[in-house]
Amino acid sequence: MASESTFYRVLRRHGQVHHRGRSRAPLKVNKPTSYQALEARQVWTWDVTWLASRVRDRYFYLYLIEDIFSRKIVGYEVHEEENGEQAAALLHRTVLREGCYRHPLVLHADNGAPMKSQTLKAKLEELKITGSHSRPRVSNDNPYVESLFRTLKYVPAWPSSGFLDLDEARRWVEEFRRWYNEEHRHSAIGYVTPGQRHRGEDISLLAKRKALYETAQKARPERWSTSCRQWQRVEVVMLNPEKPETGLKTAA
């Protein structure tokens, strides 16, 4: 007689613990590392999406970097091809424009060729940026930029027939960037714009809204069936928060 753990220990010692049967062995997927952003310019996420042209099977490529704390589009470019050189150049320009050159920063991406190129890896090392990647064959490890791309392609102004040329694609994306950053009131950050949150203006805006709602409730309490909305600022934004047992890191 022996315990179950003893049986497994003896089997493991003799190399007898392995997958049996004709079915495929379970795929071991590494758990993602979670990062938390407490302010802007701590955790960025980025990806490349295709923009269809009016010519069949011809596409333009939108490289886009988003700050997960503010949801602001901090950098983008549209090109006619995908490669690591253009990705590295965009990242360098974005870091300089945002004033965070060689500051602690996490850049999360999927496993596309430009994201894992040696050119981009070298640029990350030069800029002292921590690289983070989605797990292979896991589609929801890069949710922020995927959500942004969905917004981009479902706005009423989206040209469903495709873009005439590269210049038209660039003009359209620039107009979208301006609208998204400065006019679009994002539900996940308290219905302020990404630009307002990135600049820290959301603190006073949300405080004013909270005071306005409380004043209105006190003036006409019979019109409120429940307590008024609190308009609390979102202080922490997580990357891959659905895995609490994974390593949690703060982008300092």
From TrEMBL:
Coiled coil: none annotated. It comes from the Bacteria. Pfam families: rve_3. GO terms for biological process: DNA integration. Residues 28-202 form the Integrase catalytic domain. SUPFAM superfamilies: Ribonuclease H-like. PANTHER family: TRANSPOSASE INSF FOR INSERTION SEQUENCE IS3B-RELATED, TRANSPOSASE INSO FOR INSERTION SEQUENCE ELEMENT IS911B-RELATED. InterPro entries: Integrase_cat-core, RNaseH-like_sf, RNaseH_sf, Transposase_IS3/IS150/IS904. GO terms for molecular function: nucleic acid binding. This is Transposase.
